[in-house]
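To whoever is on call:

I kicked off a structure prediction for a single chain this morning and the downstream step that reads the tokens threw a length-mismatch warning. I double-checked the sequence; it's 341 residues and nothing unusual in it as far as I can see. Pasting both halves so you can look.
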Amino acid sequence: MRTAIVILNWNGLHWMQRFLPLVAERSPGARLIVADNGSSDDSVAWLKAAMPTVEVIQWSETSASRGGYNEALAQVKAERYLLLNSDVEPMPHWLEKLGAYLDANPRMAACQPKVLAHADPSRFEHAGAAGGYIDRNGYPFCRGRIFEITEVDEGQYDDDGEVFWATGACLLIRAEAFHQAGGFDASFFAHMEEIDLCWRLRRSGWTIGYTSAASVLHVGGGALGYGSPRKTYLNFRNSLLLLVKNLDTPWWWVRILHRMLLDGVAAAKFIAEGHGSHAWQVARAHWSFMARLPSLLPVRRALKRAQRDPKLKGIYRRSIAYDRFILGWKEFAALDPSAFN
């Protein structure tokens, strides 16, 4: 078995009951593994009774972070891993198409399928859509999704190609590349860790891809809802961590200060919209980031010494926040193509 499908689970019995039989049915020839992070529901008991062919890796302590993936994949021998959220329904032939695309591109570390919303399959889903990008200030966006706006799928992204980052909801990655990069940064705690991993892989000379030949339906917000204040905290904090670790410029600290000012504007917008709890989470994110900054600087220096390819395709040199909220651009096609390096 060349491919091991690995699902990280924490109290996700309802998702597994709903989607795991479909994953098994539509993934012939793959090894199927659930890595359980100390669930208190009946996840493991159900797996052993209802799907005994599924392998189970267990830990006694609860953790929702991708650190669980690091621990699990250290125990899994396979040529490539398919990291899959438990709230994903794959379409027929998904794994075959993803695998063929990765095989056709030997310098590609990882790739993702088209990600559509399970509640409305005519629309792209927030977490990944048709491949991810990032702007100069560290704000992520996708083909098919800019901030909260998702596009209708009209075939506009029915293609294959290189992207900046691929979704962690459904990521096919070479085992060699994953382990060479050191896996996920567990301190990101399940938010933006796939962007950090993809950025590090790209700096090491690998590419990241997207193919519309494969598609999945994603519920989204299974661990933390998209409107959760906790999610706001993690997204703002981790985005700053991401920039410090990976920006390849001697003026990175200027970019950080600029980003923190923009975050202040975002906090003011939260307050104006009556979401004071989210504004508070932005402040908490900044305090947490500043506390961690001294320990990040040695990490940044080590990554810079190891990099092979600092000139990365896919960074948007404009501000996606300005384009979305000031200019009113809501679709990827409206963005300035000359601003992508």
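Update from on-call: the warning came from a stale cache, not from the record. Cleared it. Sanity check on the structure: The chain has a mean pLDDT of 91.
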